[in-house]
Design a protein that fits this description.
alpha/beta, Arc Repressor Mutant, subunit A, D-Maltodextrin-Binding Protein, domain 2, 3 domains, 5-stranded mixed beta sheet, 15 strands, 25% strand, WH-like_DNA-bd_sf
Length: 317
């Protein structure tokens, strides 16, 4: 017996309440439908229908079997669709939102290569530091940075997000080099006003999961900004120490405009590891255009990400 064909015949017969209508729907003989149902009943050891001149009526066992069989067939259909979609050419308009600074530095520069690889995908880019409601804004995929809150959205980690303390050579010559996180309280610090308070929390790199290794530092400083690139420029200008992600500070570090201090410490807002994420609405099947975008940038960034490449020596003050 072709079990799945028999189950489909049974479900159609339960819906149409007729073997002949089911046979017409499935383009098979009425006798074939009848045989399928009889074989199912024999396999299950229970009658699925009460037959009468008025048509087919499900028995209690038939109703129970139909309920679970429909779930199983839906799962099979989903599996077939997911697998067959791998062969579909990604196409259509992809609406993407991303933080402004990260987008300018690490998404937009690679868009020509992405569009060359996927000529049937159009892009609608939304650069904003606000967290948009993806459903209301019609967003297909969002690039988000940090620790994700609990939500119904799907997410894939596409790169690490490492934040380090940096300052200019001129600043260190003038004010000295901090040797421990506690020393930062005596330094001029540049704060990002988007953060909830004027504190930096540090965790030892070698033991990032040990909560006992976390140090919370109260900050001092006269400058705050709501833009991370502005904080970078102020740090390069020698205005104070800044807590910067390596994806933003890497060029200035390589060129010697900034130096990294406290190399054995990383900034954390909690025990969860921050990262760069691709976030998309929950769907049983992720569209090929979303999958193409996420796979492309995960591969482009690499592990470790290209912006950290070659910084092992440059990060030492």
């Amino acid at each position: 017996m072709d079990y799945f064909a028999a189950v489909r015949a049974f479900i159609n017969a339960a819906e149409l309440q007729s073997f002949s209508k089911t046979a017409h729907e499935m383009a098979v003989k009425t006798s074939t439908v009848s045989r399928y149902v009889s074989e199912l009943e024999k396999d299950l050891g229970i009658a699925l229908f009460n037959r009468s001149t008025r048509g087919l009526v499900l028995t209690e066992g038939g109703r129970l079997f139909r309920e679970h069989a429909m779930i199983a067939l839906q799962a099979l259909d989903d599996a077939r669709q997911v697998t067959s979609s791998l062969n579909l050419t990604p196409q259509g308009v992809l609406r993407v939102t991303m933080p402004s600074a990260f987008g300018r530095r690490h998404i937009v520069p690679h868009l020509p290569a992405f569009m060359t690889r996927y000529p049937d995908i159009g892009l609608d880019i939304v650069s904003t530091d606000e967290t948009l409601n993806m459903i209301e804004a019609g967003i297909d995929v969002a690039i988000r940075i940090g620790v994700l809150p609990d939500s119904s959205l799907m997410a894939r980690r596409i790169a690490p997000h490492r934040r380090i303390v940096c300052g200019s050579p001129a600043y260190f010559k003038r004010s000295g080099i901090p040797r421990a996180p506690e020393d930062l309280a005596a330094h001029e610090t540049l704060r990002l006003s988007l953060l909830p308070d004027d504190k930096w929390s540090f965790t030892r790199v070698a033991d990032a999961q040990a909560s006992s290794e976390q140090v919370l530092v109260e900050l001092q400083g006269r400058l705050r900004a709501d833009d991370s690139e502005a904080v970078l420029e102020l740090a390069v200008a020698g205005c104070g120490l800044a807590l910067l992600p390596t994806w933003l500070a890497s060029t200035a570090l390589r060129e010697g405009h900034l130096q990294h201090v406290l190399p054995e410490w990383e900034a954390r807002t909690g025990r969860a590891e921050p990262a760069v994420w691709a976030v998309y609405p929950p769907k049983k099947i992720v569209s090929s255009k979303v999958r193409a975008f996420v796979d492309f940038y995960a591969g482009m960034f690499g592990e470790p990400p290209y912006w950290d490449d070659g910084l092992a020596l440059a990060l030492k003050p």
